[in-house]
Amino acid sequence: DAPTPRRAVAAGLLVGGAALLRAHAVLLILPVALALVRGEGEQRPSVGPWRRAAPAVLAVALLLLPAVLFNSLRSGRPVGPSLNGGVNLYIGNGPAANGFFLSLRGFDMREDPSGARLLTEKLRIAVPGAAAADRAWARMAWRSIASDPARALGLWLRKVRLHLVAVEFSQVSQLGSWAREAPLLRLLAVPYGMLAAGGLLGLLLVGFRDARLRPWAAALLLLVAAQSVFFVVTRYRLVLVPVLALLGAAAAADLSSRRGRRRLVGVVAIVAAVLAVLPWGLGDASSRLEAAGLLNEGVRWELLAAAVPSSLDRAATLYAEASAVDPEHPEPYRALARLRRKTDRIDDAVDALRAGLAHADPADDVRRDLIALLLEAGRAGEALPLLEERLRDRPGDADTMHNLVVALMAAGRIDEAEKVAGDLVRAAPGDPRGPLDLGITLARQGRFEEARAVFREGLQRIPDDARLRTNLERIEALLED
Fold it and tell me: What count of Cα atoms within 13 Å lies in the side-chain half-sphere of residue 137?
């Protein structure tokens, strides 16, 4: 049928909606425009070929405009419909990049989804908010690319190939877990390698020879090229499935019609397509992907616990399996401890974190969790060496200094607690915990006049802090008596 303005607008809205979910999907407007320009079925087009594509382009622009304006105003610079391009670019091209989506060690998606805290610790500069974090990640990524363009090109080519490899990337979307829980689903699954080989075969044999398939072939190439700038993950490859299936069907139709020497060419193409999708050269990435997949599956079971309490046992098993597959990954230990803490199995939670402290790299988040757990459980003596070690690694860290003051006071080491509290006041003059901790250590020693002076000075710097005001009132009441 001939393309019409209504169909062009519908196609533009579909592409715009896809781009809101994944910004680089906006590239699909190019094959859409190609299909509209062709004017298939029109005898005498009433408008010029490129004017047929204009409604689609306008629909995309109008749909994306609110998100683009919102992000740009918040960021203070032109930004697309998505604000996670910087960290994705770094994950795919940074010093540790290997082509796959692999979580940055120390990156806590729950507590710090933009990575601002990790950047602050890594760069030793303040990163105020998601927009600043996005810019910082992008700068680091481009710096890495510019320092070794050949490596960046090699990574991109590897990612292009990984889009077609016949193996499951289970770190985020664990398709295999569905079949484990419901074996009947195995009968419904088509192996990705078969789809990839068929699609590649169709691309080679008929993708650009048949005018009807050219927009689809172009869409496949554009998606793979754009996604390979970042990394490869299961959900990125799932986007390709409809096009791979269509091109695979076209390849099957073409091969069935071949005769003689042309059939031999088809056999050679089949062999080449199969060899191209074989999963060679993945290295130790397979175990890391498997561990990340087990971890994410465990999180899903843990989230079911409110409705199905027994799912916690399944989550615990998955977390333990993940730590066995990739002992250096800190998150399975943290997740297992979190789960044990929910069920009041404090000793088991402590054991999980101690195991993580021995094997994880980096282990700072594990150590931080262990410190918090020990302090909460009233085991300050066990937390003290961990706090002192963390303070040596992170001098001037206000959280660590405050927790060390608490642990030292609980252990009866008031003189040492007073010294650390004084260091906290000097290291973080805007943090109310400094004068609070120092005033309390002085009051514990009966030095009420000094404590009052500390609380007063703290209120001068931080006049709205209710805790400082309350402690000052208590000290003044004691002195009046």
Answer: 26
Of the listed ranges 107-111, 199-203, 251-255, the one predicted with least confidence: 107-111
Q: What is the pTM of this model?
A: 0.69
- For 93, 337, 391, the CA distances from 301, given in Å and listed in that order, are 32, 15, 36
Contact 459, 469 (CB under 8 A): yes
Q: Which long-range contacts (CB under 8 A, 24 or more apart) does 307-313 make?
A: 312/339, 312/342, 312/343
Q: How far apart are CA 264 and CA 272, in angstroms?
A: 13
Q: Would you state the pLDDT for residue 44? A: 44
Q: What is the pLDDT of residues 120-164, one digit of tens each?
A: 877 777 787 778 888 888 889 999 999 999 999 999 999 999 999
Under 8 Å between Cβ of 148 and 142: no
What's the pLDDT score for residue 43? 47
* 343 phi, psi to nearest 5 deg: -100, 20
pLDDT digits (tens, 9 = 90+) for 8-56: 898 899 999 888 888 888 888 888 888 887 654 444 445 556 677 888 8
Do residues 75 and 134 lie in contact, with contact meaning Cβ atoms separated by under 8 Å? yes
Buried b (16+ CB within 10 A) or exposed e, 109-145: eeeeebbbebbbeeeeeebeebbbbbbbbbebbeebb
- If 0-12 CB within 10 Å is exposed, 13-18 middle and 19+ buried, where does residue 181 land? exposed
Question: How many CB atoms sit inside 10 A of residue 186's CB?
Answer: 11
User: Integer distance in angstroms from the first to the last C-alpha of the chain?
Assistant: 94
Contacts of 14 (CB under 8 A, 6+ apart): none
What secondary structure, in 3-state letters, does the chain show? CCCCHHHHHHHHHHHHHHHHHCHHHHHHHHHHHHHHHHCCCCCCCCCCHHHHHHHHHHHHHHHHHHHHHHHHHHHCCCCCCCCCHHHHHHHHHCCCCCCECCCCCCCCCCCCCCCHHHHHHHHCCCCCHHHHHHHHHHHHHHHHHHHCHHHHHHHHHHHHHHCCCCCCCCCCCCHHHHHHHCHHHHHHCCCHHHHHHHHHHHHHHCCCCCCCCHHHHHHHHHHHHHHCCCCECHHHHHCCHHHHHHHHHHHHHHHHCCCCHHHHHHHHHHHHHHHHHCCCCCCCHHHHHHHHHHHHHHHHHHHHHHCCCCHHHHHHHHHHHHHHHCCCCHHHHHHHHHHHHHCCCHHHHHHHHHHHHHHCCCCHHHHHHHHHHHHHCCCHHHHHHHHHHHHHHCCCCHHHHHHHHHHHHHCCCHHHHHHHHHHHHHHCCCCCHHHHHHHHHHHHCCCHHHHHHHHHHHHHHCCCCHHHHHHHHHHHHHHHC
